[in-house]
Amino acid sequence: MPPKPVAPPTPDINDCCGNGCDPCIFDLHAAAMEQYRAELKAWLALAGQTADAGAGGPSF
């Protein structure tokens, strides 16, 4: 199983230069968080399938 995704670090308020950049560092962080959430959702689904694989109980 692949390693659990790690959330991107949150930029400090002082990391923004305040010049109205496009994209701003906070926009980039928001996009990285969207990607992280998608990867985490997929990882959790895979982890659930892996955990459930042997939990079927006896087969009669």
Overview of this protein structure:
- The chain has 60 residues and is mainly α.
- It has a domain at 20-47.
- 47% of the residues lie in helices and 0% in strands.
- The chain is built from 1 helix and no strands.
- The longest helix is centred in the middle third of the chain and has 28 residues, at 25-52.
- The radius of gyration is 19 Å and the shape is elongated.
- The relative contact order is 0.18.
- The model has no long low-confidence stretch (mean pLDDT 87).
Question: Helical amount among residues, as a percent range?
Answer: 40-55%
Give the assembly state of these chains.
Answer: single chain
What is the count of β-strands?
Answer: 0
Termini Cα gap: 30 Å
Instruction: Compute the average pLDDT.
Output: 87
The share of residues in extended strands comes to under 5%
Largest sheet: none
Organism: Cupriavidus basilensis
Protein name: Oxidoreductase-like domain-containing protein
Pfam families: Oxidored-like
Domain Oxidoreductase-like: 2-43
